[in-house]
Design goal:
The chain has about 110 residues and is mainly beta. The strands form 2 sheets. Strands 2, 4, 5, 6, 9, 10 and 11 form a 7-stranded mixed sheet that branches. It has a 4-stranded antiparallel sheet with strand order 1-3-8-7, with no helix packed on it. A hairpin with a 2-residue loop joins strand 9 and strand 10. The protein starts with a strand and ends with a strand.
């Protein structure tokens, strides 16, 4: 499966962005999908994940500001980001875990100016 992330950009602090991640084929709702990010000079970190039948998981740093969702009919994962902070700056990657392994999207840059 291939994942294509999009929706990044430059936004002022306090602003909003919505990221999308389109999969090249149908991914069952029971399969976990998530978002990660990597800031310059730092390791990639977990942001949020979702799977059918369970509450979404969020990193403490984004809880209450970000919302993860998915449209299984469109095989698309979303991340609605609000109240953005400069420390949210980084490359955002989508990921899914299938029986054949982990699959990552190519990343989309999010830059939050102060």
């Amino acid at each position: 499966v291939q994942l294509q992330a999009s929706g990044g950009g430059l936004v002022q602090a306090g602003g909003s962005l919505r990221l999308s991640c389109a999969a090249s084929r149908t991914i069952h709702g029971s399969v976990v999908m998530g978002w990660y990010r990597q800031a310059p000079g730092k390791q990639r970190e977990f942001v949020a994940s979702i799977r059918s039948g369970r509450d979404p998981n969020y990193a403490d740093s984004v809880q209450g500001r970000f919302t993860i969702s998915r449209d299984n009919a469109k095989s698309t994962l979303y991340l609605q980001m609000s109240s953005l902070k400069p420390e949210d700056t980084g490359v955002y990657y989508c990921k899914t875990r299938l029986e054949s392994g982990d699959y990552w999207g190519q990343g989309t840059q999010v830059t939050v100016s102060s």
